[in-house]
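hey m, so remember when u said the tokens were messed up on ur end? i reran from scratch. heres the input so u can diff it against urs
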Amino acid sequence: MIDNKSISRLKSLIGDFLEYMLIEKSLSQLTIKEYQHYLYRFHDWLEQNKIPLFPDSINLESVRQFRIFLATFRNANGRTLNKNTQTYHIVALRSFLRYLNVKRDISTLHPDKIDLPKSSPRMVSFLNSEQLNRLLNSPRISDEIGLRDRTILETLFSTGLRVSELVKLNRDQVSLERKEFGVRGKGNKIRVVFLSDTAAEWIDRYLKARKDNFLPLFIRYGGRRTMEKSGEKMRLTARSVERIVKKYSKMAGLPIDAHPHTLRHSFATDLLIGGADLRSVQEMLGHESIRTTQVYTHVTNKRLKEVYQKYHSRK
């Protein structure tokens, strides 16, 4: 029989790990929530299989059995877990074990003994120049909302910002004169972001149309107005930006269901097709690893395209 102390001990360590990832690693609340879900599922599986809930009880055999459980799992609706979701569970478990080994000096299975499955190359969706122009020209700029929406689309494509980075921007943070500014991205990493002349012009036009002094660069227009000086409660949310991009994606009749990350993909693809090197694009996107940026190379290899066009007999 498993006692309550052992249960609370393992869950307590998971809680400590999640706090560490939030404070020391600066992971987003969404990522922390996902890690919690994956690790609690592992904890509950151990409990259901009457495996002692102590770090030193985690071994290769228990991990192997857990992976079998994930591979055969079905929820109440009969749905299974896809390969990526199964991998995310193991990634979270490895991170937790590394924390126990390295940060807490707690004896448990070493994470390097757990192999991750080889995943298929991730496909990215991006817009070509004709589709991009249709999207950018979709908002009606006769009012302030349409002007804001056009500026959001232009800024996303010009900078390659993550939507979470975009909504955190303040109007005094962006230098329209230098056409650059700093952002703090994933892992608390700071990078310089550049604005195109076009994006800078749209931001300037939008700000001149604003009749408020609120700090956020992009604000909402529905709901109750705030009396606070900073206007923080008026800041547009990431979810709202996602809805904006989706709205104009439908209006433009795009063949894909575009979202803010589609414009980030389009930004990276545009640079690489134009001949930018992978390392520079990595820096501009704020990717910690070059491997993350390499997902774009299969659609942007300019040299191979030039070789094909030069030597293929069917012109």
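this time it looks ok to me. The two ends are 74 Å apart (CA to CA). if urs says something different then somethings off w ur setup not the seq
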